[in-house]
Amino acid sequence: MRGRVRDIDERLLGENFLGNWVEDNESFLFFSSPSSEVVSGLLNDRSDLEFFDDYHFTYEQWQGSCLTPLRIENFLIVPPWNQIEAEKGELKIILDPGVVFGTGLHATTRDCLKAMVYLRSRYPLGKVMDLGTGTGLLAIAAAFLGSKEVLAVDLNPLSVKTAKKNVRLNCFEEIIKVIEGRVEGFVNEKADLVVANIHYEVIGKILENKGFRERSWFIISGLMRSQVQEVKWQMEKYDLQVIHERDNDMTWYTILAENSKLASLH
């Protein structure tokens, strides 16, 4: 619907309400079963809201797959209702994505996890900043890999709620701070590693900021083949060295880069 559904409105949407995805001045309400009466009641209470369409699909269609245990490197990612135990040496992440993306199924998420494991095998991660955190998966992984301070940022209020829930499920409330806001507002935040699985246009913009570049390491993802070379050229211009690169079928690319002047201090 057009207009922003508020937190106070969400409390009245019933037990089948799953979440409210807000984009600009539109709200996408998710329910586990048809809830036309609840929606009609909301519209009666909020004359500024305008209904314009509804869609019916399975949860698996929305997420792209059913939620089953997933192994990536030494991580075991499981939904909270699955009681599978981790094998020796595995790090078990409990993840309830709700209707937010970031389950580990997408190539960019998987490759960010792999890049963090690769980096951690050589250096301590230090303070980590996860830009565009989504479900909070990468932030939680950073905490499991030994980071003592993680800042997770997302513009989407539903992503923030979901990430906070997953942080609690994994008992990292003392380590991970989840904040709602635009990535551009955190370019000068101190961190040793920045993980940015976000839109190409935003990556190009924040790389131009000197404060953003004053980190030891960068994991940049969400890049398509036509975009990755531009980002690499931009990094080279600012003396950021690509030390590892992954691609998925030459479609999605993930870069691990270092600021050699700062990385050498670790």
Task: Give the topology, please.
Blueprint: H1 7-10, E1 17-23, E2 26-31, H2 36-45, H3 59-63, E3 70-72, E4 75-78, E5 91-94, H4 107-120, E6 127-131, H5 137-144, E7 149-154, H6 157-169, E8 176-180, E9 193-197, H7 200-207, H8 210-213, E10 217-224, H9 225-237, E11 240-248, E12 252-259, H10 260-263
Helix pairs in contact: 7-9
Q: Could you report the average pLDDT, rounded to the nearest whole number?
A: 92
Mind describing the biggest β-sheet? Answer: 7 strands, mixed
CATH class of the largest domain equals: Alpha Beta
CATH architecture of the largest domain: 3-Layer(aba) Sandwich
Shape, per Cα inertia axes: globular
Structural class: alpha/beta
**Cα-atom radius of gyration:** 19 Å
Total count of strands: 12
Count of alpha and pi helical runs? 10
Give the strand line-up of the largest sheet: 8-7-6-9-10-12-11
- Specify the helix fraction band: 25-40%
Instruction: Give the CATH H-level superfamily of the largest domain.
Output: Vaccinia Virus protein VP39
Strand content: 25-35%
CATH topology of the largest domain: Rossmann fold
N-to-C CA distance: 50 Å
Question: Uncertain segments of ≥5 residues (pLDDT<50)?
Answer: none
Task: Tally the structural domains.
Answer: 2
Characterization of the model:
It is a single chain. The relative contact order is 0.11. This protein is 31% helix and 26% strand. The model has no long low-confidence stretch (mean pLDDT 92). The radius of gyration is 19 Å and the shape is globular. Strand 11 and strand 12 (252-259) form a beta hairpin. By secondary structure, it is α/β, with parallel strands linked by helices. It folds into two domains: 7-56, no CATH class; 98-263, Vaccinia Virus protein VP39 (Rossmann fold), CATH 3.40.50. Helix 7 runs parallel beside helix 9 (225-237).
